[in-house]
Write a structure and sequence with these properties.
Layout lengths: L5 H9 L7 H12 L5 H17 L4 E6 L10 H18 L4 E9 L3 H18 L4 E7 L9 H9 L3 E6 L5 H10 L3 E4 L11 H10 L3 E3 L1 H6 L11 H6 L4 E3 L11 H12 L3 H13 L5 H13 L6
Parallel strand pairs: 1-2, 2-3, 3-4, 4-5, 5-6, 6-7
Length: 308
């Protein structure tokens, strides 16, 4: 099959709100990948994404990406090197912004690919510790494995671990991930008993105190929750569990971090003070150094919210 051109991609991405399942949403990511098949394209896409977040007043950004090889055009190593070059360029162009990378392992690509990506992450984290800070378990939860044994190797090497968890009902795997205790979790949709989970799972999650990245728009558009008002944010926030807001993929889901805060505020009746506290708390869950966190907190505290 031929790769779609840019206009085809725009048409498909524009129709994401019409999709009816999580599986259909994952097809969109394949479309996005089809137009980043060279290191130059990866560099430009990375730079553009960082620039968009900068324009949204984001001061700390963690990107996650699965290394890809394209026959005759790009190796996995060149893929990561292109991202690092973009980070270095952005450090010059946007000196007030901190950007980090989590190397992702995609469930459906299998054990060998996951092993390769983890080896690359460990290697590049030693060469570029200011940029490569962790591993991310992601991909279609209906396929593949959680690769927890491989994630243990990454943890032993000093990398932080983030894991997408319970995007679909799967009690056995959810328990395994919670017992593994990643440094951060993603989504955790099907854990609360009112969202296809169970009281056992929800109690385990609350007792774990593991911070969770919540992606409101992504979950609604992928139909893993029926509406913003039913989102797991409600139950986690009320239980005072550590949470932070994220965009998942801002391009695919046509959102921004500011938009996600706006939705949270409107949907769950959060005032400015509560939203600022949510922002401040999220700094503690970042894969940044203590010095970097103190710098970020200083910037937030000095920000003039009357101008926002």
């Amino acid at each position: 099959m031929q790769n779609p051109n840019a206009e085809d991609c725009e048409d498909i991405l524009a129709d994401i709100e019409k999709f009816s399942s999580l599986g259909e949403c994952f097809k969109v990511f394949d479309v996005a990948h089809s137009v980043t098949v060279t290191s130059e394209a990866v560099f430009q896409a990375t730079y553009d994404v960082i620039k968009e977040f900068k324009e949204d007043n984001v001061i700390y950004l963690e990107l996650r990406s699965t290394p890809r090889a394209v026959d005759g055009q790009m190796t996995k190593q060149e893929y990561i090197e292109a991202i690092i070059r973009a980070f270095q360029t952005c450090k010059t162009d946007f000196p007030d912004m901190l950007v980090k990378l989590l190397v992702s392992i995609n469930r459906k690509q299998g054990y060998k690919a996951a092993q390769e990506n983890i080896e690359l992450a460990i290697r590049f984290s030693k060469e570029y510790p200011e940029y490569i800070v962790g591993l991310d378990l992601s991909g279609d939860p209906k396929t593949g494995d959680a690769f927890l044994e491989l994630l243990k190797k990454a943890r032993t090497a000093g990398l932080k671990i983030a894991a997408h968890c319970a995007e679909i009902p799967n009690e056995v795997e959810t328990v395994d991930i919670l017992e593994f205790k990643p440094d951060r979790l993603g989504h955790c949709t099907c854990i609360h008993p009112k969202l296809q989970g169970s009281q056992r799972l929800f109690s385990m999650l609350l007792n774990s105190k593991i911070p969770i990245e919540l992606c409101l728009t992504s979950n609604v558009q992928c139909k893993t929750v029926p509406s913003y008002g039913c989102h797991q944010f409600k139950y986690l926030y009320e239980a005072e569990h550590p949470v932070c807001l994220a965009t998942d993929d801002k391009g695919v889901f046509h959102t921004s971090l500011s938009r996600e805060y706006e939705i949270a505020g409107t949907t769950f009746d959060l005032g400015r003070e509560q939203l600022v506290k949510l922002c401040v708390a999220s700094v503690q869950y970042a894969f940044a150094t203590t010095e970097e966190k103190n710098m970020l907190l200083s910037k937030i505290n000095k920000f003039d919210y009357t101008l926002a």
